[in-house]
Specification:
- This protein has 150 residues and is an all-alpha fold.
- Helix content is 79%, strand content 0%.
- It contains 4 helices and no strands.
Length: 150
C-alpha cells in the first residue's frame, strides 16, 4: 500500500512539474520577446526542468493536504508564494537568466510572477464563488424536496 501511495505522489509531482515547465518556458519566451531577445541558451532547458521539479515539490507540499489539512486554498497560495518567489529569484540570479542591473527585465519578469499569483487568487475566488452558488442551489433543492418534520 505504501508503494502505491509513493507512486501516486511521484505521478502528481511529475504532472505538476510538466505544467510548470510549460508555463515557465512560455513566460521566459514572452519576457524575452518583450525585451527584444529572440534567442536563449540551450542551458535554459535543464535549468527550467530543475526549477520546475523544485516548484512542483513545493506546490505538492502546500496543496496535497499532507501538511496543511485545514488551510484554505487562498492562504495556501500565499504560504507558497514567498518560498516560490525566493527560489525563483535565486535561480534567476544563479543561472544568469537576466542581468540584475537591467531593472526593466527584472521588473517585467517579476511583474509577470505577481500577475500569475494574482491570477491564481482570482481563479480560486471565482471557482469557490461558482461552487458555493451551485452548492447553495443544490442545498435549497434538497431542502425543498425533503421538508423537515418539525
Amino acid at each position: 500500500m505504501k508503494l502505491k501511495r509513493f507512486a501516486e505522489i511521484v505521478m502528481q509531482i511529475k504532472t505538476i512539474a510538466c505544467f510548470l515547465f510549460t508555463a515557465m518556458s512560455l513566460i521566459f519566451v514572452l519576457t524575452g520577446l518583450l525585451l527584444g531577445r529572440t534567442t536563449f541558451s540551450i542551458w535554459f532547458i535543464p535549468q527550467a526542468a530543475l526549477l520546475s521539479f523544485l516548484f512542483a515539490v513545493l506546490y505538492f507540499i502546500c496543496f496535497s493536504n499532507l501538511i496543511f489539512k485545514k488551510l484554505s486554498y487562498i492562504r495556501r497560495l500565499w504560504v507558497m508564494a514567498g518560498p516560490f518567489f525566493l527560489l525563483q529569484t535565486l535561480c534567476v540570479w544563479l543561472f544568469h537568466w537576466f542581468d540584475f542591473s537591467d531593472v526593466q527585465a527584472l521588473g517585467i519578469y517579476f511583474g509577470i510572477f505577481l500577475l500569475g499569483i494574482l491570477g491564481c487568487l482570482l481563479a480560486f475566488y471565482i471557482y469557490y464563488r461558482v461552487a458555493g452558488l451551485r452548492y447553495d442551489g443544490l442545498l435549497a433543492a434538497y431542502r425543498a424536496s425533503h421538508p423537515s418534520k418539525s
